[in-house]
Structure formats: C-alpha cells, structure tokens
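User: Hey, my collaborator sent me this sequence without any context and asked if I could get a structure. I don't really work with proteins. Can you help?
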Amino acid sequence: MSQGSKTQGEAVKQDQNMNIGVAIYLSCLAIGGAVIMMLGYKYHWGFWGWLGGGLLVFAGVGGLGSMWATGGVGIVECPNCSHSIEVMHISLHRIVGCPQCHTYLEGAEVMKPVEGDYIAKQPSFEAPVPANLQWPEGCPVCRQPVSGTVKIEGTSSAGAMASLMLPVSFHRVNALQVPRCPEHKDGVWLHIVDGGSVVSFRSYAYWKEFCELNNIELSYQPTPDESNSSAS
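Assistant: No problem. I've predicted the 3D structure and written it out in structure-token form, which is a compact way to encode the shape of the chain:
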C-alpha cells in the first residue's frame, strides 16, 4: 500500500454478493405482500389483509429504492491494518471505526482516517466509561471555557465499537454530568451496552484526550517498521 493511498483514502467497493442477497430478500417481501393483498381481496380478509400485505410491499419496494439511491452495501479496506469493513449506503457520508485496529474513518465513496481537528455532526467517537472518570479541560466540542454542565442519560445501544475494545474495564452508569459551554450541549452521548456504558464525542481531539487522561488505549498508531512495510 502506498503512502499516497493512505493520504487520499480508500475507495468503497460494492459488495456484489451481499447486494444481490439483500435485493432478493427485499423483492420476496414485496412479492409476498402483493400475494397477501390479492388473497385478502379474493377471500375477503378485510383490513388486516390489506395492512399486512401493504406493509410488506412498502418495506420491499422502499428498501429496493433506498439501495438504488444510496449504492447499497459496500466494503472498505482500513488504511492502517487492511481489515475489510462492511458499510451501508455507499453514497452517504459516514464515520466508522475499524473493529480490528480501532482507527476511525470518515467519508462516503472514499474514506480516510479522521484528522486531528475533526468535529462530527453528532457524537461518533466512542470510549468505555472508566470507574474514575476525568474530563479534559474545556468544552467537549469547541474547547472554549466551560460554563456549566448538562445531564445526559444513557440509551440502549448494540454494537458500539468501544464494547469490542479489549482489554478495557467498563463502568455501568445511567447518567452523567457533562461539561459544556453556552453554545454546545450536544457534544457527548451516553450509551448502555452489555457489561457497561460507552460515551461518544463529536470532537475527535477531545475524544483522544479523554482516552489519554483516563488511560484508555483505543487508538492505533503503526510503528515505523509497520509504516515502512505498508509503504513498500
């Protein structure tokens, strides 16, 4: 892998097998719904026949339309460790974390590692909640002086990337008091996962400092030998 490809990012490739499978599934939903509606009409099933069939047709046709409009399922190779990451809706911008080396990538058709000053539209960078939590100085979004705190409550979340990062001990909390400035009250979210809780941040720099301050080893940095090897 060349250094140029790392700088420019990795192209997201169509996952043809997965897209074909999903398209067949959605087509079967639509056809099944149409059959139910026809049988309901023939045998006078009434409202429930029309409702059940209509929902299936809507789900199937709507899903096919969404696949066509957004590019369906794709695969992107992590620039750091070459792990294949499955993504949805190829043409839409996203932030994903590599489950193998924990590098965060951002982009749509082309994805690249998140830059140090990146701020996401919504909290996307995750870390497990440590037992003795410490907050970095400043607002979690803009790093301006803090004017107070805002209470955030945990929501159920499955598949959070931070829950895959071992060895990390989790601390279970249902609510946190988060520092904020007058302009930003949405810099941090709290998610409840199996075995503990996860906080996510809009600011990549704040997330990184939070991990360092709380001794959470989540990020991946290649050694010089690995960088030279990947550049060859």
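In plain terms: The longest strand covers residues 148-153. You can pass these tokens on to your collaborator as they are.
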